[in-house]
Design brief:
The protein is of the alpha/beta class and 505 residues long. The chain folds into four domains: 4-71, no CATH class; 77-258, Rossmann fold; 290-344, Adenine nucleotide alpha hydrolases-like domains (SH3 type barrels); 349-500, Elongation Factor Tu (Ef-tu), domain 3 (Beta Barrel), CATH 2.40.30. The protein contains 15 helices and 21 strands. The protein has helices spanning 4-15, 31-34, 51-65, 67-72, 87-98, 124-138, 148-165, 171-190, 226-229, 249-258, 280-284, 370-373, 403-407, 476-485, 492-495, and strands at residues 21-22, 27-28, 78-82, 102-109, 142-146, 195-197, 202-206, 213-217, 240-241, 293-297, 303-307, 318-319, 328-334, 339-344, 352-363, 378-383, 391-397, 426-427, 438-447, 454-459, 462-472. The strands form four sheets. Strands 15-19-17-16-20-21 form a six-stranded antiparallel β-barrel. Helix 5 (87-98) runs parallel beside helix 6 (124-138) and helix 7 packs antiparallel against helix 8. The longest helix is centred in the middle third of the chain and has 20 residues, at 171-190. The protein is globular and about 70 Å long. Keywords: ATP-binding, Disulfide bond, Nucleotide-binding, RNA-binding, Transferase, tRNA processing, tRNA-binding. This is tRNA-5-taurinomethyluridine 2-sulfurtransferase. InterPro entries: MnmA-like, MnmA-like_C, MnmA-like_central, MnmA-like_central_sf, Rossmann-like_a/b/a_fold. Residues 481-505 are annotated as: Disordered.
């Protein structure tokens, strides 16, 4: 004990702010200087400890509590907060400032909608003004950075290209990977920041070996945004902070209202950032060719209407078909023939499948999980859409040849088996492969598995990474029909023979 106190006292002497410490009665004589930082009154616990141990524990508590003072004095990290003009980033900045960090805001401009039809619906100017007012309320500087050229090159060009092949990409993952946590992070550092903070509902934690950061789901699972962060390079996470990861959205709004922030009641952003609340079909038609074609009912093979253009539709979407007494849903797309397959009702078996194939693998750790690296299967959790709850699945590299993979009916021997070939309702147009392919078996049937969307994998709360869904396997509707009728003709689901199925391998 005697050897520990001098070291702690030496550390306290460097921190300052304390004029006298009484170890016997645990009193601070500098209460006025400590109270503003929210430490409150110190109450010793563990009455069974010796006074020396209690004193040492108290010293440690004071040292930890004084860290915000250190930052306040300009000795700690400088944090750039990506202020978007919304409530989440506003509270992220507020919390960091309250903790004593030196904080400034950065507003990122990625898109110019001035020349678009309906472009006035974009809230960029209003968002910037709100960000400016929040920065003024918080007493921090605000900088504006322009990433429009890089956004166009790294995000939007591939977005429109994917749509032309029949994919339904999610640009938010690419934006986070290439813009927010690459370009913006570097710009923040050039402005003098040590780290970049955002209002994402996600958490960070050190790996067991302490060598790298892991991405965790946010405490508020309804708002958890780890799905959108799943392709961010793990090396970037060491320079990132997510102050809202342990909060729930309702508490964030309450705090904003209590603090009188102008963003307290501001409506949350919706949809793709550069589309906003505009009609998506109207927006995408400005960048991708739209050619009307038939809606085809999977049960009968009959044409029951005309669609506006394949890029306007995605799996699981309600198809607005005039003159129909019931609701119809998109269950697939035949891009070469410009047809959209539909089925009646949101629970039609053509919407569900038990397998899928993905590519474009991106692991936050920078390396394959050990199981996959060894050619084995990995049992984990997944999300195939942002809003869906996590579900169980088994994944395996298509090139795996271990006994375990073969026992699971996965790997190299099953790459061209029926269950890992595309659904006959999913025919794309010349999709370029992105590296190694991943086979996925869902524990429960999965709804509306959509080519181009992100498949995000989890080990409990830890986000492992993301992949691009290439195609769903045969739907439950197709499997049931084959079981009952073999390879007979007459139904959309069976009219395409196995040899004619679209191979993406």
């Amino acid at each position: 004990m005697a050897g520990r106190l001098p070291a702690l006292c030496m550390k306290l002497s460097h921190l300052g702010r304390l004029s006298r410490i009484g170890c016997g009665d645990f009193r601070l004589s500098a209460k006025d200087s400590i109270a503003p930082y929210g430490w409150g009154k110190f109450s010793p616990v563990d009455e069974g400890q010796s006074s020396g141990d209690r004193c040492c524990k108290w010293f440690s508590t004071v040292v930890e509590s004084l860290e915000p003072v250190n930052r306040k004095a300009g000795l700690g990290p400088v944090i750039a907060v990506g202020l978007s003009g919304g409530v989440d980033s506003s509270i992220a900045a507020l919390l960091l400032k309250r903790q004593g960090y030196r904080v400034f805001g950065v507003y990122m401009r990625n898109w110019d909608s001035s020349d678009e039809v309906g472009g006035t619906a974009c809230s960029a100017e209003r968002d910037y003004e709100d960000a400016r007012l929040v920065a003024k309320q918080l007493g921090i500087e605000l900088y504006e950075v322009d990433n429009q050229k890089r956004y166009w090159t790294d995000v939007f060009e591939s977005f429109t290209s994917d749509f032309s092949t029949g994919l339904t990409p999610n640009p938010d993952l690419a934006c986070n990977r290439y813009i927010k946590f690459d370009a913006l992070l570097e710009q923040a550092k050039q402005l003098g920041a040590d780290k970049l903070a955002t209002g994402h509902y996600a958490r960070l934690a050190l790996s067991r070996d302490g060598q790298q950061f892991q991405l965790l789901r946010g405490i508020d699972h309804d708002k958890d945004q780890s799905y959108f962060l799943a392709s961010v390079a793990g090396s970037a996470l060491q320079s990132v902070m997510f102050p809202l990861g342990s909060l729930i959205k309702s508490d964030v709004r309450k705090l904003a209202a209590t603090e009188g922030l102008i963003t307290a009641q501001k409506r949350s952003s919706a949809g793709i950032c550069f589309v906003g609340r505009r009609n998506f079909s109207d927006f995408i038609s400005e960048y991708v060719d739209m050619k009307p074609g038939p809606f085809i009912a999977v049960n009968s093979g009959a044409e029951i209407g005309t669609h506006d253009g394949i890029p306007s539709y995605t799996h699981g979407q309600r198809a607005r078909i005039g003159g129909q007494p019931e609701a119809w849903y998109v269950v697939g797309k035949d891009v070469p023939n410009n047809s959209v397959f539909v089925a009646a009702g949101p629970e039609h078996p053509a919407l569900f499948c038990t397998t899928a194939v993905a590519d474009g693998l991106s692991w936050i750790s920078g390396a394959l999980p050990a199981e996959l690296a060894e050619g084995r299967v990995l049992k984990c959790l997944y999300k195939a859409r942002y809003r869906q709850p996590v579900e169980e699945c088994t994944v395996c590299l298509a090139s795996a040849d271990s006994e375990e993979a073969l026992r699971e009916g996965m790997g190299i021997a099953f790459t061209n088996s029926r269950k890992f070939l595309p659904s006959s309702l999913c025919r794309l147009q010349s999709v370029a492969m992105q590296g190694e392919q991943l086979q996925i078996k869902f524990l429960n049937t999965a709804r509306a598995i959509t080519p181009g969307q992100a498949l995000v994998l989890y080990d409990g709360e830890v986000c492992l990474g993301a992949a691009r869904l290439l195609h769903p396997g045969p739907s439950v509707f197709e499997e049931d029909f084959e079981h009952e009728h073999g390879q007979g003709q007459g139904q959309v689901a069976s009219s395409t023979q196995r040899s004619e199925l679209v191979h993406l391998h």
